[in-house]
Design a protein that fits this description.
about 550 residues; alpha/beta; Isoleucyl-tRNA Synthetase, Domain 1; 4-stranded antiparallel beta sheet; binds 5'-O-[(L-methionyl)-sulphamoyl]adenosine
Length: about 550
């Protein structure tokens, strides 16, 4: 009988293929990969979906500028994303392109279903339109006027006045429903809380406008055509098409069993710039399709420079490939998630990355491994001391009530080993809690508490003195405690830094990968039967900087 594993379905936004990927895209993707790996590590059945958003005016234009057809152009840039994900060690389960037949079919199904439910109606639009953002807005929403032109509230550029026949999706009546759903939090959570408040504030202070979900073919041809019986002259608005990917990838309109297994998504990871599309348009569309809401939408912050979002159009982007070439993929992954809390904005600098590398990675984790294994070699010929030195493998050896015994004299080495043992046993629960809130920075801080405590234990127990004084039981206890800590650390850091964690695992003499052993509570005792280490090169050789 196959075990019924808990499913976990997470998604990233679909990236626009108008230009090659940069740090901002890699941030969303790495966070999703860490989350997916964590859920695999704890034994869940994971579906990690990512992909590319390939329609719309921006892409049509970029293709024209590159002298290619939109299809040739999107094939090329979509591949560039997949190539970068390989470099960044991203293990997605599915990659969807909005130009794929499976997606187009699902979009057509949505059109038909909504027309049938009378939630779509034709209407002549007469108002402002921001071409780069492909965004319609009424005067009330304009961010002021310059030379008679309304300023787009999204990108702050002047918009054009247009008049055209289109199709609209009824949203306006669902405002109250959505406010109640978000407030109750029973079916959907928007995190961080500040973003949830932002959405609620918007909904409470504005009437919702019905969404224009088509574009006339004579203005924009590069989109998913409407089913012919609805219109032969329109294509689908790119955002409307793109959001549907979250269900088209799991079989909407094609494979109800698959859809039933995976939907609703456990989390949509997005950047804060696209919160409204997800929290308002997407949720109302799901309601219209009689589908449950995603359990969580998490809107992360931006990597900024000089107070501005890094983006290709501003020309201030960091190229992940260059950083990875210099510092390695795991240092880059670690830095992005450690430096800035996931909901907040961050500033990227190589100086900050080098500092993190030399302190957290080289000095703390790298040295802990190196010193522990060197001592294991020196004092025990590389054999992790076998079995608990003091009896049952639930050592350290304090039996219940021992501390109350008047004859008890605490041995600081025993007490500290006990403390580390407790930390090891609780590490899973602590990280699991932080990661359930996508608080990656907090999870890493907790992991590093164990790294630092173990390093301090080396100092406080001074194994070199224990060896000299032939205090072999304490020496064994210290070494095995360090090895137990390192083993659980390899597992805990694996989602963040898979390559280095696997190297650490191998140096502990362990076969396979850290993800082959379930990560759970009470993991002390892994080396109760000893083991033979295989010390190797330092994990993180220090980066020397010019003074
Ligand atoms: N195609 C839409 C999403 C459709 S989802 C159904 C889109 N694409 S995007 O390529 O412009 O952005 C994709 C993701 O990259 C967004 O989550 C966005 O926030 C993120 N980032 C792009 N630049 C960024 C930074 N400078 N910093 C952090 N992330 C930012 O929007």
């Amino acid at each position: 009988m196959t075990k019924n594993l808990k499913k976990y379905y997470l998604t990233t936004p679909l990236y626009y293929v108008n230009s090659k990927p940069h740090i901002g895209h890699s941030y969303t993707e790495i966070a999703a990969d860490v989350l997916a790996r964590f859920h695999r590590l704890i034994g869940e059945d994971v579906l990690f979906l990512t992909g590319t958003d390939e329609h719309g005016q921006k892409i049509e234009r970029a293709a024209r500028d590159a002298g290619m057809t939109p299809q040739e152009f999107t094939d090329k840039v979509s591949l560039a994303f997949r190539d970068l994900w390989k470099v960044l060690n991203i293990k997605y389960d599915d990659f969807i392109r909005t130009t794929e037949p499976r997606h187009k079919k699902a979009v057509e199904m949505v059109w038909r279903k909504l027309v049938e439910k009378k939630l779509i109606y034709p209407h002549t639009y007469d108002g402002w339109y921001c071409t780069p953002d492909e965004y319609f807005f009424t005067e009330g929403f304009a961010d002021g006027f310059v030379e008679g032109k309304a300023i787009c509230p999204e990108c702050k550029r002047p918009a054009e006045k247009i008049r055209e026949d289109n199709y609209f999706f009824k949203l306006s009546e669902d405002r109250e429903w959505l406010i109640n759903e978000i407030r109750s939090g029973a079916n959907i959570k928007i995190l961080p809380e500040t973003r949830q408040n932002e959405v609620l504030g918007f909904l409470e202070n504005n009437e919702l406008q019905d969404l224009c979900i088509s574009r006339p073919k004579n203005r924009l041809a590069w989109g998913i055509p409407l089913p012919a019986e609805i219109s032969k002259d329109h294509v689908t608005y790119v955002w409307f098409d793109a959001l549907i990917n979250y269900i088209s990838a799991v079989g909407f309109g094609a494979d109800p069993k698959k859809l039933g297994k995976w939907w609703p998504a456990d989390v949509h990871i997005i950047g804060k710039d696209i919160l409204r599309h997800h929290a308002i348009y997407w949720t109302i569309l799901l309601k219209a399709l009689d589908l449950p809401l995603p359990k969580m939408i998490f809107a992360h912050g931006w990597w900024v420079q000089g107070g501005e979002k890094m983006s290709k159009s501003r020309g201030n982007v960091v190229d992940p490939v260059e950083i990875v070439k210099t510092y390695g993929v795991d240092a880059y992954r670690y830095f992005l998630l450690r430096e800035t809390p996931f909901g907040a904005d961050g500033t990227f600098s190589e100086e900050a990355l080098i500092l993190r590398f030399n302190t957290d990675l080289a000095n703390d984790l790298g040295n802990l491994l190196n010193r522990s294994l060197t001592m294991c070699e020196k004092y025990f010929e590389g054999e992790i001391p076998k079995g608990p030195p003091f009896g049952a493998f639930t050592y350290p050896m304090l039996h219940e009530g021992a501390e109350e015994d008047p004859r008890f004299t605490p041995n600081p080495i025993h007490s500290e080993a006990q403390g580390i043992c407790n930390d090891i046993n609780m590490l899973f629960a602590i990280i699991n809690e932080s990661i359930s809130r996508l608080a990656f920075t907090e999870a890493l801080r907790e992991i590093w508490n164990l790294v630092n405590r173990s390093n301090k234990f080396i100092e406080s127990s001074s194994p070199w003195i224990l060896a000299k004084q032939q205090r072999s039981e304490e020496l064994r206890l210290v070494i095995v405690t360090l090895c137990e800590a390192l083993k659980v650390l390899a597992q805990a850091v694996w989602p963040f830094m898979p390559e280095k964690a696997e190297a650490l695992w191998a140096q502990l003499g362990l076969k396979g990968k850290p993800c082959d052993v379930p990560f759970k509570d009470n993991m002390w005792g892994f080396f109760k039967d000893g083991g033979k280490i295989a010390k190797g090169a330092p994990l993180f050789p220090r980066i020397e900087t010019k003074k």
